Amino acid sequence: QVDVAAMVQLFGYVDVTDTGFIVAALSIAFNPLFWNVVARWEHKTRALSQVFGSPHAACYCLGAAILLLNCVRSHCFTEAMKSQPKLEGWDCHWTYYSGLAISAVGTLFVVSSFLALGFTGTFLGDYFGILMEEKVTSFPFSVLDNPMYWGSTAIYLGWSLMHASPAGLLLTAVVAISYTIAVLYEG
User: Fold this and answer.
1) Which domain of life is it from (predicted)?
2) How confident is the model at residue 174, as a pLDDT?
């Protein structure tokens, strides 16, 4: 049997009906849905490549849109955390530095993934017909599958711990679920 007492206590600190929390959850769920739908649409129609004059220009524009949406998502996540109560028992140096370490590892995975894949490899270039010469198997791909997704999730987890935020932890679970669904959809 699972002891749900900790989850019940955590939910006691989170107002899931708060507008900021709802907006954050929706922005988290929207991002992977958006880029997967747009990329598959491009793959089937080549419409973006035609509009932008080349697959590279279209991929760069989609990448810019994804980056902008990620900024919006991060802002909404942060605002939702700030508007909800902290968990006092976690508002200490140990939790803060643990969160900082988790965020650092997540950042390492995200940055190293980007460096290994390049811009078009990171931002769905394969859907635009921009293929890499071979599959990337070096770090961080040698350590785990989808390091960009799990690195990003780790950043949000660390950020939540640094802010002793139960709302942040719940939103991090939304991030993880959204990425899990995206991986299933992409696979």
Assistant:
1) Eukaryota
2) 96
